[in-house]
Amino acid sequence: MAEPAHILIVEDESRLRSLLRLYLEREGHRVTDVGDGRAALAAYAAEGADLVILDLMLPAMQGESVLEGLREQGDVPILITSAKRTDAERIAGLRMGADDYLAKPFNPHELTARVAAILRRAAPNRPRAEEIISLEGGRLVVDPVSRRYTLAGADPSSHGSGRLTPGEARLIAALARNPGTVLTREQLLESVARRPDEVYDRVVDVHVANLRRKLGDDAGAPWLIETVPQVGYRLVATRDAG
Q1: Per-residue pLDDT tens for 170-190?
Q2: According to the model, what pLDDT value does residue 103 have?
Q3: CB proximity list for 196: less than 8 A, separation 6 or greater
């Protein structure tokens, strides 16, 4: 059983919302439940939460917008529940910054197991303030806590800044703690608090692709997230730019 936590349920189906509340309270968690997106953002702003269970199909304000609003407020773990079931739809949800995705209909026992796994992994894998990542003399700087990054390439047109999703921040922090070392997908799944099954094994690849796009990992960059076929990835912090 996971340590008791404050969980925010965002679900417009009242019967399902009540059922999830019952199961989670049986696990010892404190639960706040709301039926629409605006109420979810207000509840999180007022009380915060240790984890959010978010339905994507909500009235008035869609779940994607709620997720974006939550991500602007903090780094809370988010478990999406949705009737959207295809791999593409699941990966789209993870790309938005969710920590896990559970397709409806689902067994409430599976949901409580997912919640326990996310809570168990989230705390030890949360980036620490001292883990500021600086590559190639500061040409790339990533703050895993705020999830902000800045780029200062040799070409002024390559300068820029932006924000990573929580999963991307945790993954780059894991790679940076082990420069030059190959990390398996299973190890990286643990770092980003994902569930290692056939679908979620692809989550690491999604995060790596996004990091490469955001951080300028191309032929002219002095760092490289290198693919090691059939194994995983490693961070090569410096290499010849030519």
Answers
A1: 888 888 888 889 999 888 877
A2: 86
A3: 185, 186, 189, 190
State whether residue 15 is helix, strand or coil.
helix
Flag whether pLDDT at 140 surpasses 60.
yes
What's the CA gap between 54 and 67, in Å, rounded?
Answer: 8
May I ask the CATH class of domain 133-236? mainly alpha
Residue of 111, 123, 125, 110 whose CA lies nearest to 190: 125
Q: Read off the pLDDT of each residue in 223-232 and give the average, rounded to a whole number.
A: 85
Give Rg (Cα) of the chain. Answer: 19
Query: pLDDT by residue (tens digit) across 84-123?
Result: 767 777 777 777 778 888 888 889 999 999 999 888 876 6
Q: Parse the chain into domains and list their residue ranges.
A: 6-125, 133-236
CATH architecture of 6-125: 3-Layer(aba) Sandwich (3.40)
With the CA atoms of 67, 68, 71 and 72 taken in that order, what torsion angle do they form, in degrees rounded to the nearest 10? Answer: -140
Q: Assess whether pLDDT exceeds 90 at residue 147.
A: no
E strand or H helix that includes residue 113 = helix 108-125
Q: Long-range contact list for 24-32, CB < 8 A, 24+ apart?
A: 24/112, 24/115, 27/1, 27/2, 27/112, 27/115, 27/116, 28/1, 28/4, 29/2, 29/4, 29/5, 29/115, 30/4, 30/5, 30/6, 31/6, 31/7, 32/6, 32/7, 32/8
